[in-house]
Amino acid sequence: MNQKLDEKQARFQSENTSNRLGHIASNLARLRTFCTTAYPEAVESVADETMSFIEWTAADIKPEYAEELVNIQVQLARWKLKFDSLWSDESKRRNMSEQASVWSERVLGISGLLSESI
User: Fold this and answer.
1) Span 48-60, mean pLDDT?
2) Cβ(87)–Cβ(42) under 8 Å?
3) Exposed, middle or buried, 91 (CB in 10 Å: 0-12/13-18/19+)?
4) CA angle, 5 then 27 then 66, to 5°
5) What pLDDT is stored for residue 1 in this prediction?
6) Confidence of residue 118 (pLDDT cuts 50, 70, 90)
7) Angle 110-29-86 (CA atoms, 0-180°, nearest 5)?
8) Region for 112 from its dihedrals, namely left if φ exceeds 0, alpha if ψ lies in -120 to 50, beta otherwise
9) What is the pTM of this model?
């Protein structure tokens, strides 16, 4: 299992930081969508992966952006700690979805990928 994780980390970190941030933004968008489904396992899995992606990226970007990513990582960890109660409350689940959407847009903006495509 650790070897697979090490390989995943190596592949992820071989990409440039803009693409890594794009993956984080994409995962956060997935969280937004998965919060409206009946698959809590998908939310937990993507949250775990996103926290890893943030860990593997934060040291390689500007400190103010790294701080934002770490704050997202902390909030995802808090969600995981009380996931069952969040998931069972539709209002809280909707709030999770909305927050993930805000984060996704912010991280995508930080990535610079949108300005590259213009």
Assistant:
1) 96
2) no
3) exposed
4) 80
5) 58
6) very low
7) 120
8) left
9) 0.91
User: What is the rounded CA–CA span in Å between residue 75 and residue 106?
Assistant: 15
Nearest to 29 by CA among 108, 104, 113: 104
Residue 81, both tokens? 């700690």
Amino acid at 29: A
Q: Note the pLDDT tens digit of each residue in 16-36.
A: 999 999 999 999 999 999 998
Chain-wide mean pLDDT for the chain?
Answer: 92
Residues in the chain: 118
Q: Are 104 and 72 in contact (CB under 8 A)?
A: no
Amino acid at 75: Q
Mean of pLDDT values over 81-99: 93
Per-residue tokens: 113: 């990928």
Residue 26 CA to residue 108 CA, distance in Å, equals 8
Q: Tokens representing 28?
A: 């956060």
CA dist 32 and 80 (Å) reads 15
CA distance 110 to 18: 8
Assess contact for 22 and 53: CB atoms under 8 A.
no
